[in-house]
Amino acid sequence: MRLQDIKVQLEAEQVAGSPRPELEIKEACAADLMSDVLASARPGSLLLTGLTHPQAVRVAALASLAAVVFVQGKEPLRDTLVAAEESGLPLFVTQLSLFESCGRLYQAGLRG
Amino acid sequence: MRSRGAGTRTQLTKLEELLRELRVEEVMTRRLVSVSGDFTMAQVKELLRKHRISGVPVLEGEALVGVVSIEDVTRALEQGEMGAKVRDRMSREVITVFADEPAVEAVKRFAHTKVGRLPVLDRGGKVVGILTPGDPVGRAFRVMDLRYREQEQQRWQQKGLGLEDLLGEGASLVLRFRVQGEDFAGAGKASVQAKRVLGRLGLDPGAVRRATIAAYEAEMNLIIHTRGGELTLEATPHSVVVEAVDKGPGIVDVEQALQPGFSTAPEWVCEMGFGAGMGLNNIQSCADEFEIESEVGRGTRVRAVVHLSQSGRKDRLNR
């Protein structure tokens, strides 16, 4: 599934990072616990999280993830946006809940 | 300086290309501050000050009806009419740009009209963002910089150069970071920086990933549990060695600390998505060799070694 398709499925908007609409995403993971992300997310995955702290972006960069989605319409902190711009990591915000976001992406064929 | 002139020209051409390629929505600001016609000029003044901006679009419902800027506020101030409504003082002739237009169109519009901001509309006429004159070029330069970094990294990887080629056999590269205790805001910066450097050297990306995840967990431990310490990553042609050393307080029961889920992290850490008792386990599972020694009152030393894959740059992404 392309990053652009994910954006549409989640009615999300990109708030920082490189525009990469054609980037192919095969897997996703959802967590607020960053150690879980580091322990289990495979490289190239999409991260869905409610943690809008810069750590979410740093963890995603370290784990070589493809992009990050903040759920529940949470506004990222300024430092988070800066961290995303520095690493180029595409950052999205959706108004949907974590549950609803995962459900939609799963239904659209994305797996964890 | 002929060569330099040529370089600048190349960069300009690239910038132009990029401004044609990027769409307005990719360079605009999405966090939209707007007012309604009912606002007073005094309220507008406060809003502009608070957000440090020089003008805002005026919306009635979802429809764009005007723009009010710092110049309008200044004029109202001079005339002693700060209580006047925005709808009586705004500019009604608004120059806009569509979100799906190439960014270069916005640049042209700024050049031709001298306006200080362009509201961005979708094709349904709804305001979806705003552009200021520096946005398109500033953003294009950032994208250019990122792409350059990526290309540079690819070049290294394609050349298949190892660290031996860079440093000579027997030499190693050491990255050393001071980590402050409780510096949660800066947490992870050292590891992210290390990943960038090691990645640029063209080392096996899977190994770099494992080494820097281990470094990150070690860095978090220094921040959460100690008064600070030192984090080092040493890259040799065959491995990356991660070491975190602190001067206390030390771990009472190392066996217990290694149990998944065992945590002594304070609550403030847990609220930020950490302290789940997985840090040392993550380091262990990332590492090919792992050592920990600790003495209460003296400090802790954690050492993790990640082997670079034998085939050089062959990816071992899934550990």
Protein architecture, described:
The complex is a heterodimer of chains A (112) and B (319). Chain A has 5 helices and 5 strands, in the order αββαβαβαβα. By secondary structure, chain A is an alpha/beta fold. The two termini of chain A are 13 Å apart. By secondary structure, chain B is an alpha+beta fold. Chain B has 2 domains: 2-137, CBS-domain (Roll); 163-307, Heat Shock Protein 90 (2-Layer Sandwich). Chain B is 43% helix and 20% strand. Chain B contains 13 helices and 10 strands. Chain B is elongated. Chain B starts with a helix and ends in a 12-residue tail after the last strand. Classes of the chains: A alpha/beta (112), B alpha+beta (319). The interface between A and B is medium-sized, with 32 and 33 residues.
Outline the fold blueprint.
The complex is a heterodimer of chains A (112) and B (319).
Chain A: H1 3-9, E1 13-16, E2 28-30, H2 34-40, E3 46-49, H3 54-62, E4 67-70, H4 78-87, E5 91-93, H5 98-107
Parallel strand pairs in A: 2-3, 3-4, 4-5
Antiparallel strand pairs in A: 1-5
Helix pairs in contact in A: 3-4
Chain B: H1 2-21, H2 24-27, H3 41-51, E1 55-60, E2 63-69, H4 70-78, H5 86-89, E3 97-98, H6 103-113, E4 118-121, E5 127-131, H7 135-159, H8 163-167, E6 173-180, H9 189-200, H10 205-225, E7 228-235, E8 239-246, H11 254-257, H12 267-270, H13 279-286, E9 289-295, E10 299-307
Keywords (chain B): CBS domain, Repeat
Domain CBS (chain B): 28-86, 90-146
InterPro entries (chain B): CBS_dom (IPR000644), CBS_dom_sf (IPR046342), CBS_domain-containing (IPR051462), HATPase_C_sf (IPR036890), HATPase_dom (IPR003594)
